Amino acid sequence: MNQHKLKIGVVQQAVEGNNKQVNWQRSSDQITELAAQGCELVLLQELHSTLYFCQQEDIDNFDLAEPIPGPATDYFAMLAAKLDIVLITSLFEKRGSGLYHNTAVVFDREQGLVGKYRKMHIPDDPGFYEKFYFTPGDMGFEPIQTSVGKLGVLVCWDQWYPEAARLMAMAGADMLFYPTAIGWDKNDTPEEQSRQHGAWETIQRSHAVANSIPVVVANRTGFEASPVAGDPGIQFWGQSFVVGPQGEVLAKAPSHEEQNLVVEINLQRTEQIKRIWPYFRDRRIESYEDLTKRWRD
User: Fold this and answer.
1) Could you tell me which of 157, 145, 1 has the C-alpha nearest to residue 86?
2) Rg of the chain's alpha carbons, rounded to an integer?
3) Cα 296 to chain center, whole Å?
4) Partner of 259 for a Cys bridge, out of 57, 253, 280, 297, CB 3.0 to 4.6 A?
5) pLDDT for 98-141, tens place per residue?
């Protein structure tokens, strides 16, 4: 990378309905504000165009998907060019008839769409029925080259897997980005909620430590009621954050509020940390072949 410092913006928002034009405008307002503050790169949360529709299995929700390129990519490509920024967005991709992905899309200034990543790890839990909607990605773990560096873009459930972060880092990612939509089951106790959030933040900070690169996380906030009678809905826990290459927290949003984060990252420090803590030098790759197995029976 040519520049040593990069100002990054993170948008943490609530979503109140499925009107895409309204939601895009609300995101656009925040992106524009961050660009005015000097941010050259902005990250949006997972599936920011609509409510989190995976609380139920409903074939009508496939109507929310759209192709790439399509209306969403046209909208955000124009915005990135107008503001002269790199922009990471997230959408429900219709790849073909009956084939859908949870996809992050990257725009680079006037270059437009320069890359995408299809979510690889797909959860299936109460209130998070993503396997019904999303086919696992087939693009591998490849960083996306942009004018501000090589971006390792992953999505939500991917954040629990050190293998994904490692492979991005091994391919030269300068930073890791996680657009996210995660929250609490309101039936959980406060103690369990605290443990879950602590695990979520810790695992992502550990990706920064293990790979000596910054990690940037955008999560949604607010409560979204379930369309299924009797289900508790999801209280998204917000708390988007940015950490440096030793896992140090550089900025963190609150839980129950919309907020933008602005962080200046010193990319030269990443190189310094890798020289002091040369994890990649000392990896015993000849002994790791079993990592490609499901289990060591």
Assistant:
1) 145
2) 18
3) 31
4) 253
5) 999 999 999 999 999 999 999 999 999 999 999 999 999 999 99
Q: What sign does the CA torsion over 240, 23, 143, 140 have?
A: positive
User: Which of 253, 243, 156 is CA-nearest to residue 207?
Assistant: 243
Buried/exposed code over 209-244 (b: 16+ C-beta within 10 A; e: otherwise): bebbbbbbbbbbbbebebeeeebbbbbbbbbbbbbb
Q: In terms of residues, how long is the chain?
A: 297
Relative orientation angle of helices 162-170 and 190-211, to the nearest 10 degrees: 20
Mind listing the pLDDT tens digit for each residue in 78-94?
A: 999 999 999 999 999 99
DSSP state of 186: T
**Is residue 179 reached through a cis peptide bond, with omega within 30 degrees of 0 on the bond before it?**
no
DSSP letter (8 states) at residue 207: H
Interacting residues of 217 by C-beta distance below 8 A, sequence separation 6+: 10, 159, 177, 178, 180, 204, 240, 241, 242
Backbone angles phi, psi at 244, to 5 degrees: -85, -175
pLDDT of residue 3: 62
Catalytic site positions: 46, 119, 156
Over the chain, what is the mean pLDDT? Answer: 96
Is 93 in contact with 165 (CB distance < 8 Å)?
no
Question: What's the rounded mean pLDDT across residues 7-35?
Answer: 97
Q: Which residue carries 């420090």 as its tokens? A: 269
CA dist 45 and 114 (Å) reads: 19
Q: What is the mean pLDDT of residues 184-209?
A: 94
Integer angstrom CA distances of residue 113 from 223, 240, 266: 32, 25, 26
pTM as predicted: 0.96
Q: Rounded CA gap, 101 and 79, in Å?
A: 23
Q: How far apart are the first and last CA of the chain?
A: 44
Q: Cβ of 42: how many Cβ atoms within 10 Å?
A: 29
Q: Is 228 helix (H, G, I), strand (E, B) or coil?
A: coil
